[in-house]
Fold:
Amino acid sequence: MPIYEYRCNQCHKEFSQLFLKLKELNTIRCKYCHGHNLTKLVSSFSLHQTEESRLSNFDTSKPREDDFYKDSRNIGLWAKKRMRDSGIDLGSKMDEIVERGRTGKILDEYNK
Ligand SMILES: [Zn+2]
Structure:
């Protein structure tokens, strides 16, 4: 099941969409404003910027959708956002922890 990332040209928000059926590709709408005017994002392109925009668009008070953690880039996002909101800056240490969680290395350490 492919996951595609889009940026809405109407409300300028970014979101990822999991496709169960290929025909859904033609019916995709913005999750926020339901607009059709979307730009498909190439995920490896400007990764850091995407991370930044994910953090700033991320609302920790809203419930996460079921497929939220199926996107490995969302792992750790909540914790990072909460710390940033609280004025705690762990800097690269936090990035390291999050990165280990995303790549599955953190599980390897638990299994040792
Ligand atoms: Zn939109």
Observations:
- The CA atoms of residues 83 and 89 lie 7 Å apart.
- The longest strand covers residues 3-8.
- Residues 8, 10-11, 13, 30, 32-33, 35 surround zinc ion (CB under 6 Å).
